[in-house]
């Protein structure tokens, strides 16, 4: 009889249920199947979901029990050995779907009677979430287990558990919707329907991908746990797709319709429940990693092929267990298998460094130049390329199973993590100690953040983080915070995707329909008006809609188009050279380079870099080259100032840091200059405060104020000035 549902317990064991009332246990390695239990004749199973394996410390190595929904209106809680521990009358008519939430504290069931019910862990009814006139074919939990997505004919509905909260409903397909899935890592929703299409949505109900119509209705769809790909099942069809919707592979197995798909926990293989009574197993192979001149492919579950395109050399790397995740960058290939982690240097493929993993399933590998980060269900672990554990950062309420490359970022000295509990917060850690950076307070933004990225080069004290918020605005701020609030500055709008360069602090991103490169993002802290002059922009319509930046290595940017094709872009090599000169304080060579290239953008970058490093001579040359005469004059006047402190203070003023300039002048005892600065900026109140506090130059302040009012033909209305004017004759 047809197989209706499948579910993995561990990465090597699968249970399947069929209309012949049997529950079978499979071992895909040996291809053996054994019968666990035969159900009563009136029970036709419809959906199976294993109890989650626990979060954090209480992790079991495997699932111990599962829920099975059946056509007699009941759901059954069944142990791993096949003992039915409890059967609960749930719906009138068949119970079409049953799903545990991520914590295992609640179960949602959906029935032919159009009801969606929430049950406790032990099978007691908590609430009826929804009632409608048509059957609910599929149901999924939101990543935080606080909302439920369910189908209603052609509509998709997201309903929060708390009463009176807003319900989101939209038309998803032109036919009945048969299956949904909601991923906890990328927060995206899949739906499959009888209109023979599958679609990808975000959690606000906006469509991100709409497939071509297939020949037959799509009967199953499921996310891999890490949210990088999903699988689609239909009549004699199994398809593997990227999270953005385009298709990696299409298989045409002779299976009948595939009614359910279940991914194994490590995301390397899946199983499907087939209409002709078979269970289909599939492995994901041919993953591809590229870096500079190397191209690496996973050709079998335990074998990688390394191809060096410069000399056509080919190496085969063999592993003991199957490969789960890999990452290639900064001259190293890091591979995690089910039990070990391998670190290869790209200079020598024969002697990898191997160490054992305690938790097992690695869900993310991130590399920086000096070390790499492994993320698994238990925590974050930072290793050196010699295989030494450097640190293991922790923060309150940490859930590592939902972190991905957009929400974690690593540089040589800093690690940044965007928290799930409060989406406006970024935790920042010192890489070497694993302790929170600076005064330990996380970085907080005013709206939810969707993507973060740390720059890779330069001094630790100048480390910057760029992030995109929910409104798709791009911000940059400094990571180091000691008491004084670093400004968070907006540098772009409608940004789809971003990446920092690996060798210099150049940022690239796709804004709206333009590809933009910020050659020196730090400009915003030096001279805000210069920022537009330090940008490179190019029309990005050739990349179709919503392209993603894959990597930015050297002066080559790799972009993944919406249809899955890779496009390569080259940007000018000169800004990177300029960054190199400046970081080594070779100012004259920097100027020479700009004179050779004769490019306004480059001069603007040099001007900003010179001011940031307080090199006035270079700044003067560069500002003159881009025709900013007023700034050249100001710099000249600064150079003629008598004392070092006042020069520094005026440099700070030049960059718009009035507060710091004033503090510096007061500390050096240059009270009159501090007062004069405030007068020049029309900060009258502050100027008077300083004069009164230091008991000096009150008359000067009043004189300037009087002249100012006379120039504008106004009368004095400020009480404090009137009060002091009486006692002082000007």
From TrEMBL:
InterPro entries (alphabetical): Beta-prop_IFT80_2nd, TPR_IFT80_172_dom, WD40/YVTN_repeat-like_dom_sf, WD40_repeat_dom_sf, WD40_rpt
Residue intervals of the IFT80/172/WDR35 TPR domain: 602-730
Positions of the IFT80 second beta-propeller domain: 286-574
Protein's UniProt keywords contain Electron transport: no
SUPFAM superfamilies (alphabetical): WD40 repeat-like
SMART domains: WD40
Pfam families reported in the protein's UniProt record: Beta-prop_IFT80_2nd, TPR_IFT80_172, WD40
Cellular component aspect of the GO annotation: centrosome; cilium; intraciliary transport particle B
Cellular location(s): Cell projection, Cilium
GO term, biological process aspect, one: cilium assembly
WD repeat spans: 88-120, 170-202
Keywords: Cell projection, Cilium, WD repeat
Domain of life the protein comes from: Eukaryota
Predominant location: other
Name of the protein in question: IFT80 protein
Organism: Brachypodius melanocephalos
């Amino acid at each position: 009889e047809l197989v209706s549902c499948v579910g993995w317990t561990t990465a090597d064991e699968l249970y399947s249920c069929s209309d012949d009332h049997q529950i079978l246990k499979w071992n895909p390695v040996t291809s053996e199947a054994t019968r666990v239990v035969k159900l009563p004749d009136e029970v036709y199973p419809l959906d199976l979901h294993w109890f989650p394996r626990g979060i954090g410390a209480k992790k079991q190595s495997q699932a111990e029990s599962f829920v099975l929904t059946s056509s007699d209106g009941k759901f059954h809680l069944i142990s791993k050995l096949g003992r039915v521990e409890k059967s609960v009358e749930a719906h009138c008519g068949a119970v079409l779907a049953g799903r545990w939430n991520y914590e295992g504290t609640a179960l949602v069931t959906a029935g032919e009677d159009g009801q969606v019910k929430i049950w406790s862990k032990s099978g007691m009814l908590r609430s009826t979430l929804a009632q409608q006139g048509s059957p609910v074919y599929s149901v999924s939990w939101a990543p935080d287990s606080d909302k439920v997505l369910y189908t209603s004919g052609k509509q998709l509905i997201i309903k929060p558990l708390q009463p009176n909260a807003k319900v989101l409903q939209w038309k998803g397909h032109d036919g009945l919707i048969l299956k949904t899935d909601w991923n906890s890592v990328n927060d995206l929703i899949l739906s499959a329907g009888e209109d023979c299409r599958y679609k990808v949505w975000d959690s606000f109900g906006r469509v991100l991908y709409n497939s071509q119509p297939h020949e037959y209705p799509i009967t199953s769809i499921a996310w891999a746990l890490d949210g990088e790909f999903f699988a689609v099942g239909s009549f004699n069809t199994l398809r593997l797709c990227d999270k953005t919707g385009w298709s990696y592979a299409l298989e045409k197995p002779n299976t009948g319709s595939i009614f359910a798909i279940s991914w194994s926990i490590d995301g390397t293989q899946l199983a499907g429940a087939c209409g002709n009574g078979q269970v289909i197993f599939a492995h994901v192979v041919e993953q591809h990693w590229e870096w500079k001149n190397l191209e690496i492919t996973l050709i079998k579950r335990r074998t990688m092929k390394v191809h060096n395109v410069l000399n056509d050399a080919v190496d085969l790397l063999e592993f003991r267990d199957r490969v789960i995740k890999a990452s290639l960058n900064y001259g190293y290939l890091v591979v995690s298998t089910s039990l070990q982690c391998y670190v290869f240097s790209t200079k020598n493929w024969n002697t990898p460094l191997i160490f054992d993993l305690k938790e097992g399933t690695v869900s993310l590998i991130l590399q920086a130049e000096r070390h790499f980060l492994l993320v698994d269900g238990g925590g974050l672990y930072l290793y050196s390329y010699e295989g030494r554990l450097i640190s293991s950062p922790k923060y309150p309420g940490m859930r590592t199973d939902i972190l991905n490359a957009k929400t974690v970022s690593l540089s040589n000295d800093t690690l940044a993590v965007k928290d799930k509990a409060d989406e406006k917060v970024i935790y920042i850690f010192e890489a070497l100690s694993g302790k929170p950076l600076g005064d330990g307070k996380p970085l907080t933004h005013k709206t939810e953040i969707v993507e973060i990225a740390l720059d890779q080069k330069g001094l630790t004290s100048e480390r910057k983080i760029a992030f995109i918020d929910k409104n798709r605005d791009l911000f940059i701020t400094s990571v180091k915070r000691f008491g004084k609030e670093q400004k968070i500055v907006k540098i772009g709008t409608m940004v789809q995707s971003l990446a920092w360069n690996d060798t210099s602090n150049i940022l690239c991103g796709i804004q709206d329909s333009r590809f933009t490169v910020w050659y020196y993002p730090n400009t915003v802290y030096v001279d805000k008006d210069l920022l537009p002059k330090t940008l490179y922009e190019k029309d990005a319509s050739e990349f179709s809609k919503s392209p993603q930046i894959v990597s930015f290595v050297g002066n080559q940017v790799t972009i993944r188009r919406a249809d899955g094709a890779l496009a390569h872009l080259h940007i000018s090599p000169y800004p990177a050279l300029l960054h190199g000169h400046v970081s080594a304080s070779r100012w004259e060579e920097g100027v020479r380079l700009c004179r050779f290239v004769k490019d306004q953008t480059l001069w603007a970058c040099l001007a900003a870099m010179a001011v940031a490093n307080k090199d006035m001579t270079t700044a003067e040359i560069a500002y003159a080259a881009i025709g900013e005469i007023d700034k050249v004059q100001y710099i000249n006047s600064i150079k003629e100032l008598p004392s070092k402190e006042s020069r520094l203070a005026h440099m700070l003023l030049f960059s718009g840091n009035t507060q710091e300039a004033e503090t510096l002048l007061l500390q050096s005892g240059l009270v009159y200059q501090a007062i004069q600065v405030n007068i020049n900026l029309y900060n009258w109140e502050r100027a008077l405060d300083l004069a009164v506090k230091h008991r000096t130059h009150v008359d000067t302040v009043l004189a300037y104020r009087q002249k100012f009012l006379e120039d504008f033909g106004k009368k004095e209305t400020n009480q404090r000035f009137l009060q002091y004017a009486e006692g002082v004759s000007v």
